[in-house]
Structures
1.
Amino acid sequence: MKLLLILVIYGAALSVALGRRGFRSGFAGAPAVSGAGLAPGGRPGRLLVVGATGGTGRELVAQALERGHEVTAFVRDPAALRIEHPRLRVARGDVLDYASVEAAVRGQDAVLSALGHRRYFPPTRILSEGTRNLIRAMEAHGTRRFVCETSLGIGDSAGRMGLTYTLFVIPVILPFYYWDKLRQERLIAASRTSWVIVRPAALQNGAKRGVRRHGRGVGSWLGTVAIPRADVAAFMLDQLADDTYLGSAPGVA
């Protein structure tokens, strides 16, 4: 019983810290060029997808190609992508290696990041340092639009992954992972890019069902809400031409 009480207190304290230290957007928007993720004239643009071999990343690549974009998939292992298309280019690299990031960003109209990894338990800075390299390269080359997937549970969405995540999954399994997401969001918010942070609910596989809720107040304090990765990818791609959430971090479910 005492151990359970300690776990509850620890989980609640971590959630408060993720809320207070995390980015809180206020949904005020940020000055930017409309349609900055598209080519001149609103045509489909050249997109760099980071984390392209992950669940959301593959959806981003596939749906971007369906929408007519020229896509560069930035991956560590090209064989893991398993997508071929005339408008798809694969760039092999590591987000922690600035030279390979800079080469991939050059010439792109926008960057979409679904960066993730499976090193959950040890301390990590892969998300934040990889994002730092992306921002540095984007600012160097004048690539304007940056759409990045993080998660509910940070900043003004703290606690909204539900009690199971708040009191067990995040504090026991993913504390370093979420703390690095916090650093990642703060780096994006301080950048000179035209950015949107997308915070999805618990991710699922499956076909698109449509994003039913987006913006402030998404999620639940009690039960865990979920969303297909395909819907997250579609919402992220929509942000290339929609300025509604520029400079903010909408939740999606």
2.
Amino acid sequence: MVDNYRFPGIPFGWYTVASSKEVRAGQVLPVRYFGEELVLYRTESGRAHLADGYCPHLGAHLGAGKVVGENLRCTFHGFEFGADGRCVRTAYGKAVPRKAKLGSWPTREHNGYIFAWYHPEGKQPDWEIPILPGPAEGWTAFSTRAMELKSHPQETSENSVDIGHFVQVHGFGGAWTEGDLEIDGHLLKGAYGIQYPLGSKIRFVAKFRVEVHGLGYSLVRVSIERFGIEINLLVLSSPVERGKIVLRTASSVKQLGPRRLALAHVLRAAATWGLNREVGQDAPIWEAKRYVERPILAEGDGPIGEYRRYCKQFYIQETAKPTELPVVAA
């Protein structure tokens, strides 16, 4: 069997595990990400937490658990776990086992999404993803679509720099890069322009500023100067397991004036339709393609080589164990 995904494991970083609407206060939601059975729950105060899916006591699945105040309660023996995963109470009213600790994952929630930090060695986050303007700042809330794909976060994020496919796959009138890529640790920035045809005679140009915050979070700031339109697009790729992701795409539009909310929602619907159309064109290619580790690049491809060098920092490289020589009797 051909292995199409030649990546050294799941890259570490921030990933979306749900939209805020998917889990209400007091609810426990079983989810699967990073090759693990997990539970996402929201405490009575409204805080969202992600934890390992199995109770460390005797292995019951916590998808059937209950939220009790700020704790998660296992229904098998009544053990309760706090937000940090530590057992705080048993149903027996006796001393809590000191080693009873439920694995917990760093989480953040903003812009209508719940994000979790993944690191194969359990290291804590060393960067944050941006909080974007919302309705309070004159932007619409994000309109979101989610789909499962046979792919990998590095593949879907690569679209941000793959300039060559915009004309060939999406049928744009032209596409070009604007300046060089900027790489600052976990953050990659790039810019490009696209010419959109409207019928046979009318064309307009959209400028795109891309921010890749690790391989699970790509922000695209779109500006259509001719019409005074500003759009924020999100491409959120979350690994479920090897060769399988949940891809969320989202769009938000800045209002053109204090009384033009209805127009902003129309523009958001148009942006969402366009984004979903493009992802629909990309998805069959992502699912069928094979990752070429050493591609033969051509002028016009875009800075794919630079992007791939940037990606290497998010993988934990396994170090080879020293060879043990056989013991020979003297």
3.
Amino acid sequence: MANEARNRRDIVHYGRLLHERGYVAATDGNLSVRLKGGRILSTPTAMSKADLRPSDLVIADMEGRILAGRHPISSEIAMHLLIYRLRADIGAIVHAHPPTATGFAAAGLALDEPLACEVVIGLGSIPLAKYGTPGTPELSATLRPLVPQYDAILMSNHGVVTYADTLERAYMKMETVEHFAQITLVTHILGRQEPLEEEALEKLVLARSRYKGFRSGAPLPLAGHFGNGNHPERSDKNRSPMESDSARESDQESRPNRRTSFD
């Protein structure tokens, strides 16, 4: 485990990358690293990730109590603590709002089609958690069933959380999620998908062990079973956004509009 000074520099570095690449805006997003002695190093609340300095970061215990730091801790520290409690193998967490992936989350669509072999190897599948109010126990409750099996989760009407043994790998998983969301969006626009079949997925499972840094044990997505992408019996989650509009109209009418920024 890197020393605290190095962890502080890394959080500042990857926080700036999130901002530069448009994965967060204003004071959105949060990052954390697990330290020795049951402590967590976290970004503070209400600060842009573009302007963070190592001295701005906050240290808390596993109950979220501040041990060191001159700023209040992230309002979403409970989500980080949940992940650390459920996953002893996790050393760092990144939460952001990358536009394309967050668009899928806002549309109620998981990224669980096996369309790209690299994503299958690195993340397995990217599920969608139900909506929970950020910064409240509701959010932790929606994530709890998914955290033990997955390394990246879309959060409905909110954003994305990724985690790994190191902050670098947690950040790279965030990049992978957004890149895959862009690829998936293109397949929706084109109106067809060619998911990997079961035999190909089985080979990718065997290939996982050969790729450094890919340690995911997440379940693989279902094998492709939609033929050339034009199967007339596709479920709603596999239709393009335009195809699914009418099927979701009644549900959307009953749901309040939510647009909140949290850090």
